[in-house]
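Support case: user asked for a sample of complex input and structure output to validate their parser. Sending the pair below.
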Amino acid sequence: MTTPPTTTPPTTTPPTVTTPPTKPGASLEALVRARLPRVRCEAVVDGDVDVFVVAAVDVKVLAAFLQSDRDAACDAFVDLTVVERAAPASGGSGADVVSLRWLVVCLASRAHDGRVQIRAVLDDEEPVFPTLTGLWPQAWGPEREAWEMFGVTPLQHPSLRRTLLPEGFAGHPGRGRYKLRKSQPQVTPSQHPARVVIDDVRAGDVVGGGRP
Amino acid sequence: MRTILEELPFALFPDLQKESDDPGVQSDPLDDDLVRPAAEDELPRSTARGRKSPLSRHMTHVVDPLDRSLPVPLGLKLSLEGARVTEAAVDTGYTHQALERRCLGRSIVGTGDDVTGVFRLIARAEPGIVSALTLARAIERLCRVTPSVTTTKQRQLALDLSTVVESAQVLAQPSLGADVVAARAAWRAAAALLEGLCADDLFFSAFRLRRPVARDERQSLLRQLDDVDEHWARLDARKSYAHLQGTGVLNARSARALGVQGPALRAAGAVDDTPTLDLEAATPAATLELIGDAWSRLVVRHADGSEALARLRRRLQASLDVDDAAVDAAATDVDAASAANVVVPDGIATAQVRGPSGGCAVLISVAGGKLERLRLRPPDLALIAALPRALVDVSLDDVAAVIASFGIHASAVDR
């Protein structure tokens, strides 16, 4: 990859030359390899999407680079999710198949109108990845949902709590191995913490009617 | 948007007459705005549509009690100073439709019931047509197929009409505290048109529509838009919702940080420049005079609806000015790329559509022509995340109106 040349402005006149960012594409892989040599990645151009496959521990490093680098300029966070894919078991016969959880982060570039994906295989015993909420605050929701539904943990997430499932729910219903007919504890209104709020209100606080 | 009673199939209100005759016989008189399930030991175990599914049966997350003025089942925990909110926490999730989970293992090849079933499931996440079109684009991207110009234009018709329906729906909510008769009439008229246009699962397929929208259908649609126009012309969002000026403010910086897109972002005076490489329902331009309050969001919705109506008329008229033979020829070209001839590779693909409420994204992972994963990311989760910020310093009487101004779909959040 060749870095676009920059011109040195004359000392007596104000600078007017600006270097346009390089459009991502085949050069984005070279950009990453040149400027992030310690991150081992496999890059594929999948249609109009640049896909980088990295180790889970490097997801944040690569994402931060793609966000901050002027030539990459992947400043828009689109989505984060987990995909469970079947793969041949290593060391086993060809018929043995295991289910791997892949973290997929979808980014986009406003400047270049392009898309990038970061994919990482998550360890089955300890499926963790560094949270991206420091780079994009809106990642909190998808990360929390990935934790609830697929059992993967975003490390140092600012507020990891249940969003869709009640407390006491066992298992991760997004996973293929989750049995649809599994029974779960039932949460009754009398047990729900929301009831506590109403009791507090009845204790004599003066409030509005709340009517439309 | 369905009402609370439709979301909670076993809900009931206390009978106020009985309560008046014998206070306390049913429940505490302070509860007359609250909705509870009929019996504590028989929690609703059905999906929001009243059907039971094994997964949704036990994924019922109760956020009872609910106030009936809310548009969606939300548990609100408000800290108050007098009658003003100082802090808000929002809890969501009542019945889980398990849409994504139920699509697993289904085929996306061909036009059989399996494929139609996937589209029908994903269309339950409102607004349904946007989700379905985004899924279609994701499948096309995976297969490296570009739909014909005719297909794209006719999909755009559905998207524009969906914008009109959505905008009218938001403006028609009773909890906004305004006269919503005209908005409700416009909503009903537009919704009927959209239902007619989407009949026979017309848009529930990839690569092409199930059949082109015929000339007489487009002529009829153009004529019937007059009904919608008649009601829409009576709407004056700037005046009708003026009582919500200055309340429920979500500024541009907060909106961007939370990933808010669409009307709520533009209402804060920011450009909605989220990259969307597929279909678009509205222009991303911002109106700089707006400050992100509830009034601004409703004004933007009204503007979106007006623009979509105008655009729909232009596109329909343009389609009628084209020689039908040319349209048929284009449709024939599409047949060459029909599902039967396309090889569906294994892999992951994404698509994004700028819907009426913001960007809708779909990710699919396919192996052997079947779905390993379907991920639907509508814009509504970000809107829910924005509520705690927007509700600060709002009067308790305006809480429901501020929530309604965002136009959140419960079924989009709880998938």
